[in-house]
Amino acid sequence: MMAMTISTDNQRFDDSPEASGEEHSWLQQQVQHLSVAVEHELRAAGPAGLSELELIRALQGERWSLIGTVDFHEPDRLYPVHFLLFHVLYRLRDQIAVEGESLNISPLRLSIGQIVNRSESTALPDSTDALREFYLDLSQYFLSEAAIREMMDNFWAGNTLSRPEHSEAAEAARTLGFDELPGQFATVKKRFRKLVMRAHPDRGGDTGEIQQLNQAFSVLKAHYA
Predict the structure, then answer these.
(1) Dihedrals phi, psi of 103, to nearest 5 degrees
(2) If you placed Cys at 75, which of 59, 118, 145, 152 could pair as Cys (CB 3.0 to 4.6 Å)?
(3) pLDDT tens sequence across 10-49
(4) Phi, psi of 191 (to 5 degrees)
């Protein structure tokens, strides 16, 4: 079966989460193709895993060609790619949990490992996980542009669906070049501004690098809130 490339064109978005049968069929095909590719890339990466940005770039490569050009400056165009990736990731986490494997899900680090407590391997991840519920609901793919921008505004403000775990905050700190979590958020802000200036395209950086710094900053902002 020939794979289709995920489009970042927002023409499918309207003011309601409803979608046609054709659109749902297209989504299911995308999920099938992505599921194979995502699991392959994460297992190939080993314990070190991949960031969301690294995974997107791998899926854009010649091996898969599943994702088109992504404009990291436009939330409504980045959102469909991000949402489908995380939909697939949460499905995969549920599937491998029954086999005794875990999947760490964070924009900064995605990695497959072994469940330490074997008694937990027979249970699915917490069904009350707000992020899991959001990403497993495919209708959320069809959010309006206004809803996406509101959600992103909340994200950058640190108003997330759940407080980041300590491991996620520590990973965010490492992304910003810290060996450990700083004692004050002011230290984070100072380092963030410095790194964003260095990562500016005019200085040899790229928008993907800036996006990763933004994600790390938002995680730490929620951690210190």
Answers:
(1) -135, 115
(2) 152
(3) 444 444 445 677 888 889 999 999 999 999 999 999 999 9
(4) -65, -40
Is there a single domain that holds both residue 50 and residue 106?
yes
Q: 62, exposed or middle or buried, with CB in 10 Å at 0-12, 13-18, 19+? A: exposed
Assess if residue 211 is contained within a domain.
yes
* CATH code of the domain containing 216: 1.10.287
What CA–CA distance (Å, rounded) separates 88 from 75? 20
Contact between 156 and 214 under an 8 Å Cβ cutoff? The reply is yes
Claim to verify: residue 48 and residue 84 sit in the same structural domain: yes
- 28-37, 60-69, 113-122, 204-213: segment of lowest average pLDDT: 113-122
Domain holding 120, by residue range, is 11-162
Residues 33 and 101 both lie in one domain: yes
